[in-house]
Amino acid sequence: MAGSFSHTPALLSETLEYLAPFPHGSFVDGTLGGGGHAAEILERSAPDGILIGLDRDPDALHAARERLAGYGERLRTVQASFRDLTRVLEQLDQTRVDGVLLDLGVSSPQLDRRERGFSFAHTDAPLDMRMDRDNGETAADLLARLSSAELARTFREYGDLRGSRRLAAAIVDARRSSPLRTVGDLVAVIEAAGVGRGRKHNPATLVFQALRIAVNDELEALGEGLEAAIDALRPGRCVVVLAYHSLEDRIVKNHLRDAARRCTCPPETPVCVCAGVRRVELLTRRPVRPTPEEVRANPRARSARLRAARRLPEAV
């Protein structure tokens, strides 16, 4: 299991530069995955630093526990979304931490495993796409339940797909004859609808991205997770976020920007009413991107974008 879930972490050296793990420190990896980032955090926080690893995917947690077993009680794993970080820390009697990492999106092992249904390459796979396969609706459930208007909005807002309404109508028409249960069922409808022409990427990429985001409520979870991460940090310590598409990155940029401003009132408000204080200092005005050398060694790092911010003292 551990070997099947291992992958090369993106922007590893840059992540460690901002997190700056140290002995006695306590750190959170909110998306533990295969444990690539976690292993280096544990190494650099030796001999007594701790890492709290969260993941919604029980397969990922099992693999990470196997891979990181040598670190013993310094690793504490919890099956949970990073949006639940505040609750998790309370349960662990941990008030504040010295760094939080959120490595967003779907991991390479999840994409590669046929039964997960994340990739349109596995046409016989079930349309699942859940990070936690024991809870929530599958992609097939959404395709069967959502109205044409709801499907179109999902593809437009989460996938920026040209022809969203046409594809939604085609799905509704197709499901009248037979439910869309497999990846191949959906790919056939996408191809027949002729959507996304003229785009650099296969339109199925955008459709599957949109469905995965909807199935896992990823964008709402991201906003809540960022808020929880900032609240959890000790002053002077950092949150680091790796995003892999523009929707995620925009949310991260805007959330950290707002947390770095004294006032977050709308521009038309004549007098500040939010009584806001700066909560973080931005460390990355623009996202850090992988070098050409890293992309050659790890092609799936190509779209990674890193942003980081440092928690300010409460009174600033």
Description of the structure:
The chain has 316 residues and is of the alpha/beta class. The chain has two domains: 3-103 and 218-311, 3-Layer(aba) Sandwich (Rossmann fold); 119-216, Orthogonal Bundle (DNA polymerase, domain 1), CATH 1.10.150. It contains 13 helices and seven strands. The protein has helices at 12-19, 36-44, 58-67, 85-91, 108-112, 139-145, 148-159, 164-177, 183-193, 203-216, 218-232, 246-259, 292-297, and strands spanning 26-29, 50-55, 75-79, 97-103, 233-243, 280-282, 305-311. α3 links the parallel β2 and β3 (75-79). α1 (12-19) crosses α2 and α7 packs across α10. It is globular, with a radius of gyration of 20 Å. The model has no long low-confidence stretch (mean pLDDT 92).
In short:
The chain is about 40% helix and about 15% strand. The chain has about 325 residues and is an alpha/beta fold.
Using brief descriptors, characterize the structure shown.
316 residues, alpha/beta, Rossmann fold, DNA polymerase, domain 1, 7-stranded mixed β-sheet, 13 helices
* CATH second-level architecture of the largest domain: 3-Layer(aba) Sandwich
**Strand residue percentage:** 5-15%
The CATH topology of the largest domain, please? Answer: Rossmann fold
CATH superfamily of the largest domain: Vaccinia Virus protein VP39
> Share of helix among residues?
40-55%
Provide the fold topology:
Layout: H1 12-19, E1 26-29, H2 36-44, E2 50-55, H3 58-67, E3 75-79, H4 85-91, E4 97-103, H5 108-112, H6 139-145, H7 148-159, H8 164-177, H9 183-193, H10 203-216, H11 218-232, E5 233-243, H12 246-259, E6 280-282, H13 292-297, E7 305-311
Parallel strand pairs: 1-2, 1-4, 2-3, 4-5
Antiparallel strand pairs: 5-7, 6-7
Helix pairs in contact: 1-2, 7-8, 7-10, 8-9, 11-12
